[in-house]
Design a protein that fits this description.
The chain is α/β, with parallel strands linked by helices. It folds into two domains: 235 residues, Type I PLP-dependent aspartate aminotransferase-like (Major domain) (Aspartate Aminotransferase, domain 2, 3-Layer(aba) Sandwich); 122 residues, Aspartate Aminotransferase, domain 1 (Alpha-Beta Complex), CATH 3.90.1150.10. The protein is built from 13 helices and twelve strands. The structure holds pyridoxal-5'-phosphate. Pyridoxal-5'-phosphate binds next to helix 3 and helix 4. Pyridoxal-5'-phosphate (PLP) binds next to helix 3 and helix 4.
């Protein structure tokens, strides 16, 4: 069955023979769960990012959850977060028993507005969780300055931002911990997967424990440790952890995808540049990209004139062009409304929620594809 229901998909995978071979070699090895390939994947990602420790897990959501736990976020705490993200960002805060406190976004970057953070801090605030939305790095220096002034910890959600750079430093090296997602539509994609990056060895040890039930030894090392004495040691359980382990299939895919990442991100950048040139005279708004960042162009959210979105989406679908919405503000979802966020009004995020439309952006788009998308966007706006 072909799931590709549009001739131009909003996001798309680039898998070829290398990924197929990588998966087959895992199947042939008959070791499917977290083992040597996962270790290698962690090492390669840590080298790529230039960070000391990377702990691979089975989703970005698991990375966010463990990241918060490793920083000591727990019931009764408050965590400052942006409302313009995938729900996983604030759901992970809820998993810990803490309460998300949403602050509005900057209308130019669509990222958390650092100017609004301090007024949201209370004596319960424990952490700040910025998201690099669409792949545009958040204002990390300012966020970290505020965090250190108030003795808070910072975890950035970098699900969109592998390969992004902020003031000459890679995303993944900027906060106490960074959570990545390798979900199917991400720049580096393994189906389901994620990772936490940190330069703190103690945090990394805690993450490893928590990813596998709080056990002191993994199944792989119990079976295959070279050192016989270590192999024969029994394991202890020292914390209440989870099963957030990555599979070897995911890690094998990740190793191949990592080798292609910079090439794919460059093509994404070219596609984005072409879009911005072709859209110059259209009444649409792009994220403003500061000169000191490198965007990873995970998705392309644009703002349309108020109330035109339904018509534009319909027109694009009729012409075989996929679109999406990144994002509906999290506090407006039914679950959050019932949880006590019905009185939360964040004017910039709320307006973005009504106007935003995500155009196709991925490494497989040709220049002709981009021209066609913009032509139909123009037709929709002028019809
Ligand atoms: C911003 C953001 N955070 C977190 C996640 C959760 O990642 P996963 O789907 O791998 O659990 C996603 C996406 O899927 C995301 O886009």
């Amino acid at each position: 069955m072909n799931h590709k229901d549009r001739s131009i998909m909003v996001s798309d995978l680039s898998y070829d023979q290398e990924e197929i071979d990588a998966v087959i070699s895992v199947l042939r090895s008959e070791w499917l769960t977290m083992g040597p390939r996962t270790q290698k994947f962690e090492l390669k990602i840590s080298e790529y990012l230039g960070v000391e420790h990377v702990v691979a897990v089975n989703s970005g959501t698991a990375a966010l959850h463990l990241g918060l736990l490793s920083l000591g976020v727990s019931a009764g705490d408050e965590v400052i977060v942006t409302p313009i993200s995938f729900v996983a960002t604030s759901n992970a805060i809820l998993y810990t028993g803490a309460r998300p406190v949403f602050v509005d976004i900057d209308s130019k970057t669509f990222n958390m507005d650092p100017k609004l953070i301090e007024s949201a801090i209370t004596e319960r605030t424990k952490a700040i969780v910025p998201v690099h939305i669409a792949g545009l790095p958040a204002e990390m220096d300012e966020i970290k300055r505020i965090a250190s002034k108030h003795s808070l910890v910072v975890m950035d959600d970098a699900a969109h931002a592998i390969g992004a750079v902020y003031r000459d430093r890679n995303v993944g090296t900027l906060a106490d911990v960074t959570a990545f997602s390798f979900f199917s539509n991400k720049n580096l994609s393994v189906g389901e997967g994620g990772a936490v990056a940190t330069s703190d060895g103690e945090i990394a040890e805690r993450l490893k424990l928590m990813r596998s039930h709080g056990l002191t030894k993994s199944t792989w090392s119990r079976h295959y440790d070279r050192d016989e004495e270590s192999r024969d040691q029994l394991y202890d359980m020292v914390e209440l952890g989870y099963n957030y382990r990555m599979t070897e299939i995911g890690a094998a895919l990740g190793l191949v995808q990592l080798m292609k990442l910079d090439r794919h991100n460059s093509r994404r950048r070219e596609v984005y540049t072409l879009y911005s040139e072709l859209c110059e005279n259209l009444p649409v708004v792009f994220q403003e990209i500061p000169a000191y960042v490198r965007h990873s162009h995970h998705v392309l959210p644009i703002l349309l004139p108020e109330s035109m979105r339904p018509r534009v989406r319909k027109h694009m679908a009729q012409h075989g062009i996929g679109t999406s919405i990144h994002y509906t503000p999290i506090h407006t979802f039914s679950y959050y409304q019932q949880l006590g966020y019905a009185d939360v009004h964040l004017p910039v995020a709320d307006e973005l929620g009504r106007r935003v439309l995500t155009l196709p952006l991925h490494q497989k788009l040709s220049n002709d594809d981009v021209s066609l998308v913009v032509r139909e966007l123009r037709n929709a706006l002028e019809s």
